[in-house]
Amino acid sequence: MPELPEVETVRRTLNELVGGKRIERVTVSLPRIIQRPAEPEAFEAALAGHTIQSVERRGKFLRILLDGLVLVSHLRMEGRYGVFRQDEPVELHTHVRFRFDDGTELRYKDVRQFGTMHLFAPGDDLTQAPLNKLGIEPLDDAFTLQAFKREVAHRTTKIKPLLLNQSYIVGLGNIYVDEALFTAGIHPEREASTLKAPEWARLYDAIRETLGRAVEAGGSSVKSYVNGQGEMGMFQHQLLVYGREEEPCTRCGDKIVKTIVGGRGTHTCPACQPLPGKRAKAKSGKAKAKPRVN
Ligand SMILES: [Zn+2]
């Protein structure tokens, strides 16, 4: 599933490839992708004749800004965009085609068919579902250590599911939460309200650094992600714990373990990310809690 860095890469690529292009005709061949308006024919008709001005992002949603319209698109599991000449063969699972007046077209392909598109009048997109309940952007200037703590530090939930909750912070998915928690040396099952000030500072830095590096590298490509220009992201080669169970920790050499936290596969180094357990609190002499293995 694409995460924030991948979506940011798609955004930048699309901005370059289709910014300034005028849509002549839109064809929807899988109605369920179109969530708003209700009728795909209305979606097709509304977009004809409009020019793409720029491509923005809110969390993992793309916001394609046109003159007088905003198209909100979520790639979900497998959605991807590509720009083709109109005479090029159309690949299987291509569900939406935006034909431009210059002989090219933007194609949306989605094998799993979970992707969504919503069309809005400008401004309405941010005040209505699906964008209206999204939390703070981790790469924005507004995401300061204070803002981060204000949002989550008092909560009694485990830190990993908290970071994954898009209504607090947007765009952090399973891969980068594992990476950031490892970098900060914090166990994913720690209750948020028990984290100390230096831990919040480390976690904040780790989130910014992990996402920032991934955006620089063009996003990771753990499964099948390809960016809008057909290039595979390179960040997967730099992942520190995600997908590295049984491999030695790059920091201490201990084995990376995979557990389940909040229903999600979770990768940790038990030595670098200790979980203070009841025994540790009772001062039983055991310094380290054993990692839970499910
Ligand atoms: Zn380690």
Automatic annotation (TrEMBL):
Co-factor note (free text): Binds 1 zinc ion per subunit.
Cell inner membrane listed as a keyword: no
Domain FPG-type per the UniProt entry, residue ranges: 240-274
Keyword DNA repair: yes
EC number: 3.2.2.23, 4.2.99.18
Residues of the Formamidopyrimidine-DNA glycosylase catalytic domain: 2-115
Catalytic activity reported: Hydrolysis of DNA containing ring-opened 7-methylguanine residues, releasing 2,6-diamino-4-hydroxy-5-(N-methyl)formamidopyrimidine; 2'-deoxyribonucleotide-(2'-deoxyribose 5'-phosphate)-2'-deoxyribonucleotide-DNA = a 3'-end 2'-deoxyribonucleotide-(2,3-dehydro-2,3-deoxyribose 5'-phosphate)-DNA + a 5'-end 5'-phospho-2'-deoxyribonucleoside-DNA + H(+)
UniProt-listed InterPro entries: FPG_cat, FPG_Glyclase, FPG_N, H2TH_FPG, Ribosomal_uS13-like_H2TH, Znf_DNA_glyclase/AP_lyase, Znf_FPG/IleRS
Cofactor(s) in the UniProt record: Zn(2+)
Binding-site list for DNA: 93, 112, 155
Keywords: DNA damage, DNA repair, DNA-binding, Glycosidase, Hydrolase, Lyase, Metal-binding, Multifunctional enzyme, Zinc, Zinc-finger
GO biological process: base-excision repair
GO molecular function: 8-oxo-7,8-dihydroguanine DNA N-glycosylase activity; class I DNA-(apurinic or apyrimidinic site) endonuclease activity; damaged DNA binding; double-stranded DNA binding; zinc ion binding
Summary of subunit composition and partner proteins: Monomer.
PANTHER family in alphabetical order: FORMAMIDOPYRIMIDINE-DNA GLYCOSYLASE
Protein's job: Involved in base excision repair of DNA damaged by oxidation or by mutagenic agents. Acts as DNA glycosylase that recognizes and removes damaged bases. Has a preference for oxidized purines, such as 7,8-dihydro-8-oxoguanine (8-oxoG). Has AP (apurinic/apyrimidinic) lyase activity and introduces nicks in the DNA strand. Cleaves the DNA backbone by beta-delta elimination to generate a single-strand break at the site of the removed base with both 3'- and 5'-phosphates.
Classification via HAMAP family: Fapy_DNA_glycosyl (MF_00103)
Family named by the database record: Belongs to the FPG family.
Protein name as annotated: Formamidopyrimidine-DNA glycosylase
Source organism: Paenibacillus lycopersici
